[in-house]
Each structure stands twice: as structure tokens, then as C-alpha cells.
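The protein record quoted in full:
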Amino acid sequence: MGTKRTEPGERLGRSTERGHASTRETPVGNRTRIIEASLELFNEHGAHAVSTNHIAAYLSISPGNLYYHFANRAEIIRAIFPQAADAVYASLPVSPDREITAADVGRYHMTGIETLWRFRFFFRDLDELFSRDPLLAEMFRELQRWLMGQFEVLVERLIQQGQMRRPDPPEDLQRIATNAFILWTNWIRYLTSTRDKFDVHYGDIADGALHSFLSFAPYLEPGFAEEVRAIFDARSRKRSGAETVRPRGGRTAGGAADKRRSEAVRVP
């Protein structure tokens, strides 16, 4: 059963409500709206399927208004990426002032996965985006270097605290960090490639964090590892089934608001 592809120039429906709102926006406000709407559409349909005309129609603004702020889709994506990087920088630095607890390790992993989900289009389409925009690829590599450095700091601190043993040979520490990063980066792509119908629950996100954690859990002190695992299990039980996200045009619990969004843009 094939999936219908979006043809260039395909007409999108417009939202009257959004159109009225756009007439009251200033140019600065429109730039922010363009970024927010693009993130929503990219996440739902994939960046490859959404053109600048789609974005303009979704916001009920003219293409010229959009081009006043962004010359092309690549510039919009490049403007979105710092939001993802800032979310990671703000939530994942290892505290130098106190002992690292099991709750800290659980939070680092859960926050990382949730950030990945918020900007899922980017991680789903990494190869294509990088091939089209070398500058974006370098921005991501900078984030990658920082993340792997933070992970190495984390495990070194745990070793110093006696809650983790150093791998033998010690050079494997960097490989462990690399494995955790590979799992984090590719989790969304793994989910999208293994399901006929892509309905992702919060439990899936927690499971991704657990997979990343398990890449170095065997090196942890057993009691400490059990504490971290209990955090993942508790979060998954609490939220699993409460929230379903359907990034390819499905309905969620949002009701009428989601129906309006679905009708505002049609990108099969």
C-alpha cells in the first residue's frame, strides 16, 4: 500500500481564524509565528514535504511576507535548530557543586529524549538536512561534541563517587559515551521505521531514555542502577497512554483545536 507524496504546488487549505490573527501581527511577530508554524508542520509531515508556500498558506500570510524574514526553507530550519540546542544546553549540564544522584541521571536522560521529541523532524531527517545545509551540519556537530563531553563528565563523577566502575580498558569510556549518543540521536528514526501506523505515546519516549541508560548501566553499582531504572519505570507508568502524538496528520486529544490544524494544511 503506497503513501501518496506531496506534489509541488499542491494547494493547501487556509484557516480563517489564523488569517484574521495574522492581520494584527507586526513583522517581528510574523517571524516568530513562521518559526513556530514551521516546527509544527515539519514535525507532522517531515521537512521534505513542507514548502515555504505551505507555511505561508498555513499562517494566511503572503509568500512575500515569509520571504521578508527567510529566503528559503533552509533558513527557517537553521533558525529552529538553536531552540533545540538551547533546550539541551539549559537542561543537561552536569552540576559541579553537588553529588550526582540517581534522580539526576534519570532527569538527564528523560529531558534529552523529550527535547528530541519536541524537535523530532530534525532527528528523523538528519541525513537529508545535512546534505542540503553544511552550516546546519556543523551546528549539530558542535552540539554533539558538547553532549558527549557532558556525558564523559557525568560518568567520571559517578566513578569518583563510587557509583560506577571504570571500563577496562579505560579508553572504552569514550565508546560508551558514543553509544549513548547514537541511541539518543536515532531513537525517533528507529520508531518511524518499525511501525506501520505511527502513534507514539509518552511511554515510547521513556523507553528511549531507558535504552540509552542501559548502554552504560552494567558499569553502575547495582543499587544505584536500580534507583535510576525505577525512575524510568515510574515515569512510563504515570504518563503512558495519557498522551498520544500522531505526527502525520492524526487526531489527538486536543479536540477542536487539532481539527482546525488538520483542516488548515493538507500535506499527505
